[in-house]
Amino acid sequence: VRGIDPTTGQYFDDTKRYVDALEISDAERAAIFAGNARRVFPRLDAILKERGL
User: Fold this and answer.
1) What is the pLDDT of residues 4-44, one digit of tens each?
2) pTM over 0.85
């Protein structure tokens, strides 16, 4: 859903704020953000691995 919630002023598709509000470790947070992206975009993962990231 695109757009801003008029009640909160937050973008409807901003899920990062929900993850940031969770009581989880930095490693778990990284797994959610970077881990998921690398799984969904394997070519990106390969490029990042080549660069040592």
Assistant:
1) 999 989 898 888 888 999 999 999 998 898 988 999 999 99
2) no
Torsion-angle region of 3 (φ positive above 0: left; ψ -120 to 50: alpha; else: beta): left
Rounded CA-CA distance 7/4 in Å is 9
**CB under 8 Å to 1, separation ≥6 — which residues?**
12, 13
In a domain, residue 41? The reply is: yes
Backbone angles phi, psi at 30, to 5 degrees: -65, -40
How many structural domains is the chain composed of?
1
Secondary structure of residue 4 in the 3-state scheme: strand
